[in-house]
Design goal:
By secondary structure, the protein is an alpha/beta fold. The chain is built from eleven helices and 17 strands. The chain has two domains: 2-109 and 299-342, ornithine cyclodeaminase, domain 1 (2-Layer Sandwich); 119-295, NAD(P)-binding Rossmann-like Domain (Rossmann fold). The strands form three sheets. It has an eight-stranded parallel β-sheet.
Length: 343
């Protein structure tokens, strides 16, 4: 049997713990930046989504002509009732030449890291220089990773927290206090964003919400909107978008899933790769409101899988699955049964 390299959920947690969360996010940041800068080499498409009343299940494919990758991911906001994560994911890298799977990995944990890495990659070009404070609106599974990433990359050292779930805010407060961050628990969204240089919205409800409205925002704020990621799910009032310079990952997908689904089809946006390669400017003046309307794109998972494969191999954390049968005569698939009977 052929053995396929595999990184389990436990293996990924051990790997991140031993290598260091900040170092892993930094490595993912660099891998994602590298792949965004070679944007035109990739065959891209919006993800394939199957929606239900309870949530969504998606497949996110991409290829650079040599390696094909995909992620399986769900989004079920009420999964906490079943003691399950809201988001669960795994991913695969395979050879384009042969189709042979080359790596399989959990992506539930790694998705949170790559989302944080992508957020700070965008913010490094979009947030105003000297930004030191962040409002975290939605204190769920993504929030600690966002805080660590922005602290390490941008020097954010003060966090204003708000969530309708008080227990989520309590958990996040405890973790950020352990890290030595300055934390203020807030009673409303308006209170949380009042003094923030950066606002991260990461709410989970699958609804057309207006978590942020234009009257809440100070001049020069950067909004890292990562919670709106499917049709019918938004976080920003249209007036926020209409008064901001808006950036996206992959425009055809964000038009369907992002906050800009509320806007006319010709509403102007800039793709992140254009900023990273110098084809477009990021922030153009200090008082400008910038929005990164991030829904998560397959290229980020491709980069994350590539980085985690290399790191797991280097650190000896890979396991191996007997996933693909080895046959001396590839046309004799039936022969596997008789061999199994003799084993």
């Amino acid at each position: 049997m052929m053995n396929t390299p595999f990184l389990s959920a436990q293996g990924a947690a051990i790997l991140v713990s031993r290598h260091g969360l900040s170092r892993c996010i930094r490595g993912l940041h660099d891998a994602i930046a590298h792949d965004f800068k070679r944007w035109e080499q990739f065959e891209k498409s919006a993800r394939l989504a199957t929606h239900s009343a309870e949530g969504v299940i998606e497949i996110m494919p991409i290829s650079d002509g040599q390696t094909y990758g995909f992620k399986y991911v769900n989004g079920h906001p009420n999964n906490h009732r079943h003691e399950l994560p809201t988001v669960m994911a795994f991913g695969v890298l395979a050879s384009v030449q042969t189709g042979l799977p080359q790596f399989i990995s959990e992506l539930t944990l790694i998705t949170a890291l790559r989302t944080a890495a992508t957020s700070v990659l965008a913010a490094s070009h979009l947030a105003k220089p000297g930004a030191r404070s962040m409002a975290l609106i939605g204190n769920g599974a993504q929030s600690e990773f966002q805080a660590v990433a922005f602290h390490e990359a941008l020097g954010i050292d003060r966090f204003y927290l708000y969530d309708t779930d008080l227990f989520a805010t309590e958990r996040l407060t405890h973790h950020l206090n352990e890290l030595g961050f300055h934390v203020t628990r807030c009673k409303s969204v308006a209170q949380a964003v009042a003094r923030a240089d950066v606002i991260t919205t990461a709410t989970a409800a699958k609804t057309r919400a207006h978590v942020l409205t234009r009257d809440m925002l100070r001049p020069g704020v950067h909004i890292n909107a990562i919670g709106g990621d499917c049709p019918g799910k938004t976080e920003l009032h249209p007036d926020v978008l209409g008064n901001a310079r808006v950036f996206v990952e992959y425009e055809p997908q964000t038009r369907i899933e992002g906050d800009i689904q509320q806007m006319p089809s010709d509403f102007p946006v800039i793709q992140l790769w254009e900023v990273l390669t110098g084809f477009a400017l990021g922030r153009t003046h200090a008082d400008q409101i910038t929005v990164f309307d991030s829904v998560g794109f397959a290229l980020e998972d491709f980069s994350a899988l590539r980085y985690m494969h290399e790191l797991a191999e280097e650190k000896g954390e890979l396991e191996y699955l007997s996933l693909i049968p080895h046959m001396s005569n590839p046309k004799n698939l039936y022969g596997l049964i008789s061999k199994a009977e003799c084993a």
